[in-house]
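chain below, 365 aa
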Amino acid sequence: MRRIRRLVSVLGAGSLVLGAMTLSVAASSVSASAATKFKACVVTDTGGINDKSFNASAYQGLKDAAKVDSNISYTYLSSSSSTDYAPNINSFISQHCGIIVTVGFLMDAATAAAANAHPNQKFAIVDDAPAVKKGTHVLALQYETDQAGFLGGMLAAGMSKKGTVATYGGQNFSAVTLYMNGFVAGVRYYDKTYAKKVKVLGWTPAKGACSLASCKGSGTFVGNFTDQTAGQSDTTTFFSEGADIVFPVAGSVGLGSVAAAKQAGAGHYVMWVDSNGCVSDKADCKLFVGTVAKGVEASVKAAVLEAAKGTFKAGSYIGTLKNQGTALEYGGVKVPAKLKAEIAKAKAGIIAGKISVNPNKYPAR
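prediction:
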């Protein structure tokens, strides 16, 4: 994935400062030995290290930490299937990694089991908060991506020429559907506020509000984060149904959407996810109307640096628009200044708590 250039990570006195908000989580500190090279390790989900999405972002966080602290070395193990999670984690435990970063909600059980069995091992997990025993050292890195997803929905609605946009997911769980829910909310808000009639394909939110733990609804899902052919097929179908912008929340599967946009020709675009598309996939920047991003690199970098310094604290970090832990990044498609101003206004409203990112607050048109 692309690095999120607007996500600012500033390390200071064992804290992560994302924008104006300091990461401070309660738990016991764990000392790291400076006698030898500190080893930071990441276990990827099935999308692979070069998925241009959350796996690549997590690994980039390790690289960024090593640029700051030359005593840090880094490595990774890729998971081809869920059966690789536990063996990969255990391999790194046996290698005495100073911190093990696991990537994704699907690694919840394997991470929790390893942490409970090895309470002194430091872990950070992206997009999940596993239930672990007291005394373990696990930092949960989560992101309220419905906030940035809302802005992405506004952008898609404002840029659509056909009045139809779409989204789909890799698998149906909250770390994915939270993005989709926010996207739908943003489109509906744009319709209501600016008297438009843009519709969304691919996701129908359930009644009630979403949370990091639960975000229900019905929609289109590939069933994994690796099948780019399926991503291309679903996107082609959305284009045939009148959509001109598609938002894949599916890791490397989204590269299939890029292929479909190329095949469909002029006027068909992709909204990328997790990390800036114009950075991770520069060749296709002209197809990205924007990226709904989250601060994986910055938060992983901070966790690794703190572990190396001996100031690591278990607990949780929640990325928001306010602390720049999630953001809308503009892509290679020119966006009118008026639309950018409307999005900026909505962003300020969300941060101030005056605008809801719950799609049920806005009637579907």
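The first strand starts at residue 9 and ends at 12. The chain is about 35% helix and 25% strand.
thats it, cya
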